[in-house]
Input
Amino acid sequence: MFRILAFAILILSTMSATNAQSCQPWEGFVENNGVRTHYRAAGSGSLLLLVHGFPDNSDTFYHRVPELSKHYTVVTPTLRGFPPSDVPEDDDAYALPNVVGDLVTLIMHFNARQVILGGHDFGAAAVQILALSKPELVSGLLLLNPPIIPRLQELVNFDPEQKKASEYTIHFQKYQVGDDKEVVDKAKFIRDPARRKEIEEYLAASPVNGMMAYYKKNYPAPPYGQISPMQNVSFSVPSLI
Output
């Protein structure tokens, strides 16, 4: 009897250790057309994909993951161009449809039929394009400080106030490898001192040419009216007249 009880306790202890290990956060890479995207993941359940913008990285959602992972499999990728993900040299690699391809690859990696998407800044632009182009994959959409697709294109092209508000991006679009990184410093707008210091150190240690290519390939600049990959997205919405 004692041996059976001891064996049962051993099995239960092993199962508890295995379950505890399976609940621990993990990380990895997925590859899309030769470009590797790093991700962190935690929890279990329906897939929740949270995508950062500039000048952040996947740590943008660090403080939200512990609570959210109680209910979802929370995945926070690091966009291409942001280490430790790959940083392609070709600016064309940063057109948002390519980024959407990275996200679809990630969804497939987790064998998810549907996903709840969340995004900030350029991450919000990418998840909107994914939701518009592949609505069957998306069960929910969370947008933080988003450029609204495709309306932002129209505003930047034709609205004087939005043109003025968008002028800060001109410095980003003119950036060349070797230029002073001070011109791309948006970390100063981060209110939390600790987080601001983290991002400043991250940018100082990272190549930023890929980050700037997002603005070169996806954001209109003078002369306004340039062709953007976001204008090629086709979708339909219900209308009431």
About this structure: Residues 26-148+158-227 form a domain with the Rossmann fold fold (CATH 3.40.50.1820).
